[in-house]
């Protein structure tokens, strides 16, 4: 069997919001779920202005660190009760996005907990990948191979800010001062 190569991304214009987001896509876990939290922030351009018409996707483990295997993650008509670990939210005019979810647990014993984040926006030739690490376990964060491979002065761009016990903030800066560290996966096309 021949080796499969990822296809290149396409320019994302200010049109995707008509078909990709769905009304409850931001509800990874409904607000009434025990242990529910809010993950929110802004997608910012190089001038620090909020970027409307961007889309943020989040993939995560459940609170115990298990990778969800339930069907329906990508369906617009998924039920509102099954935790699938996936959500999709469009930004408002000011670049703001929000998710209702649970704090992810570490996928391995002693590992750092994080959200896998993907950003789509007009003008990007391909989606951007990053991680939003959950604060609190300093030993796990220090020992994380990816996080420790990032220059120390840029690591904070990968850390959520704990605003209160039920709220995490993760701003995504596409370029300029404080630009978020973005990841390149093996064989991913530029």
Automatic annotation (TrEMBL):
The record's InterPro entries line, in alphabetical order, gives: Intradiol_dOase_C, Intradiol_dOase_core, Intradiol_RC_Dioxygenase, Protocat_dOase_a
What protein does this entry describe?
A: Protocatechuate 3,4-dioxygenase subunit alpha
UniProt superkingdom: Bacteria
Query: For this protein, what is the EC number?
Result: 1.13.11.3
Q: Could you cite one Gene Ontology molecular function of this protein?
A: protocatechuate 3,4-dioxygenase activity
Q: Which gene encodes it?
A: pcaG
Q: Which family does it belong to?
A: Belongs to the intradiol ring-cleavage dioxygenase family.
Q: Domain Intradiol ring-cleavage dioxygenases: where?
A: 14-175
Q: Does the keyword Oxidoreductase apply?
A: yes
Tell me which UniProt keywords the record has, alphabetically: Dioxygenase, Oxidoreductase
Q: In its keyword annotation, does this UniProt entry include Oxidoreductase?
A: yes
